[in-house]
Amino acid sequence: MQPAAPAPRAFETRIRVIYGDTDQMGVVYYANYLRYFEAGRTEFFRSCGGTYLEMEKTGFGLPVIEAHCEYKVSAKFDDVVVVRTWVDEIRRASLLFRYAARREGDGTLLAIGHTWHACVAAGGKPARLPPAVVRLLTGESSPRS
Amino acid sequence: MQPAAPAPRAFETRIRVIYGDTDQMGVVYYANYLRYFEAGRTEFFRSCGGTYLEMEKTGFGLPVIEAHCEYKVSAKFDDVVVVRTWVDEIRRASLLFRYAARREGDGTLLAIGHTWHACVAAGGKPARLPPAVVRLLTGESSPRS
Amino acid sequence: MQPAAPAPRAFETRIRVIYGDTDQMGVVYYANYLRYFEAGRTEFFRSCGGTYLEMEKTGFGLPVIEAHCEYKVSAKFDDVVVVRTWVDEIRRASLLFRYAARREGDGTLLAIGHTWHACVAAGGKPARLPPAVVRLLTGESSPRS
Amino acid sequence: MQPAAPAPRAFETRIRVIYGDTDQMGVVYYANYLRYFEAGRTEFFRSCGGTYLEMEKTGFGLPVIEAHCEYKVSAKFDDVVVVRTWVDEIRRASLLFRYAARREGDGTLLAIGHTWHACVAAGGKPARLPPAVVRLLTGESSPRS
Lengths: 145, 145, 145, 145
Description:
4 copies of one chain form a homotetramer.
Chain A: E1 11-16, H1 32-47, H2 52-57, E2 64-71, E3 80-90, E4 94-103, E5 109-118, H3 131-138
Antiparallel strand pairs in A: 1-3, 2-5, 3-4, 4-5
């Protein structure tokens, strides 16, 4: 019998909205959600027991090749935005992060989005995702036999 | 016989990449393309003979409800990014801008993307796109009979 | 005998450096320290028992009229920057915040700076600092007799 | 007899304010003036016949060691900010840029500021300003005899 699939990992990162994040409509400027998503995935890495920085030091990078965001309700100055981040798909040489941003307190859904990342080796060449990174992000601490 | 459909309007905006747009990979940070797209659509409005600011003064806004970007080749410091912008679809209460960003000089395609905008009236309520805005953006200077 | 003057209040805010804060030199872009300083003073307000947002709702604002930063050592991606913030001077209609940013862990001094703020009432007119704001920021919870 | 000192070079760069530059007060966020100053000095280099990029390729950099800005009148969305930039002082291993930002049209002074830059060689070590850079920025096309 197969063991049950582990529940997908997710991690929540809190970000306090500053003046510099808002625009003249009095809400968070749309591009800044991609900054929040970046904070979310960096903290996701850390929550898995590694860091993005360490992965880079092994010679690999995960540049964004596609970003997408749907805006539901506007976040405002001094709100705390909670970004829930998880890995939704892992392919040979790319992976998909998904994000859901909620307002702390009432839990209002502010935005959802995703980013696709290519794996590149030194020099920017496409590369297979290192098994150590896959294990880190999926929580499979030992290689399959 | 129907008159031929007019060619869709498009407008090209030039943006010089500054240090502040780049990140430690030595390329433009992914969120900044959404800033470039905003510059593109603001200049698109102006090229149509109006401004986004004037539209706002009539009490309407076009907040972004969805943003999407696909990254092809990285732009670098001191590059000039040329953002081609056009309206691809107009619905009753929303519209779709599309963007193609190229590097000036060699014309390399850097990124493509789109933004969906809802039309809102004062107070943020959804509203029908004002006919004057539709005419402005589509270049139809007189109402159809 | 006079009671000893209370030690000046200061508050420390932690900020994790993201990719979007860095530039192609691999360090935090110089303008972003002003963002960190803003985070520092917003959290300073909160540490005093109020919020900048609440003050604004009473009709007052504290726009920056002068900003200054001296850069000592570069912060890098994934560093935690600790911004120590305090009020250094309060005049009739303006006040001075000072900041010292250090790297968490080794305590390296990254940057020091200050911002002068004018007090303005509704409509942007210069105004005397509200006594409640002075008390909040200085920690004098009751008026002097 | 000494020849008259040449008038100091200055260069004016135009920047259109986008939504993403503003904050919820409806004005340009204070940190963004440092971005405008950077655009000003990069274009100043170009106006001298070289580029900052070319200087970097010779192995030198000019990191900011001090930035200062005084805010006079707020710039708003869709304003064109004209940044006048000039070199005010050149020392052995550092130099001073000054900036004056005005609103296009009525010429209103928005902000003034300066940035001090250290000269560094590869690896970030302090270095004497290369004579070629001094000549480029001062417009002295041949060395003094």
